[in-house]
Write a structure and sequence with these properties.
Length: about 170
């Protein structure tokens, strides 16, 4: 009779954090305001306000929006605020920057709201492989939150993890 195969990882006290499991579903939209600038470079306030007023903002319902300018134009701060005031009733989140900035802001919010008490004095693996794009900053922030509570932190998979941190034992 063959020996029973035992999953030692499943039976261990090892905690696995998979940031992909926290990925907020929804459309990501890069809104380039250079299309609303005169010759792509100069913001004419009256024209810009008219564009914003007449734009169909409902198309951004529940979307995650990154406001950006792809040209070398100097954009006054109020322009992003104005666009945000139109987007706020519809969009799930609005940031100024590129799509990487958007993902970083989303994950920062998620990680900052997580309860890390369940990882107290436990060995933790931060899962590295994912199908979704997870910004490196999210992993760094997760490390900052875990390090004060976890006994040890590794990165990767249970079968091939890289040790990152081990709490020093206090001598009495």
């Amino acid at each position: 009779m063959a020996e029973e195969i035992v999953n030692r990882v499943a039976n261990s006290k090892l905690a696995v954090i998979d940031l992909e499991a926290y990925y907020p579903e929804g459309r990501r939209i890069l809104f380039d305001i250079s299309d609303w600038l005169w010759e792509g470079l100069i913001l004419k306030e009256k024209d810009f306000r008219e564009q914003a007023k007449n734009h169909d903002w409902s198309q951004y319902q529940d979307a995650y929006v990154a406001l950006t300018c792809s040209t070398e134009a100097i954009i006054p701060g109020w322009a992003y605020l104005l666009l945000s005031s139109y987007l706020n009733p519809y969009a799930a989140q609005v940031v100024v920057g590129n799509l990487d900035t958007l993902e970083t802001v989303l994950y920062s919010s998620i990680i900052n709201s997580m309860d890390f008490t369940e990882y107290e004095n436990k060995p933790v693996i931060i899962k590295g492989c994912a199908d979704k794009v997870i910004p490196e900053t999210a992993f760094v922030l997760l490390m900052q939150k875990l390090q004060p509570v976890a006994r040890s932190i590794m990165y990767g998979e249970a079968c091939s993890s890289v040790p990152l941190y081990k709490k020093k034992k206090v001598r009495e």
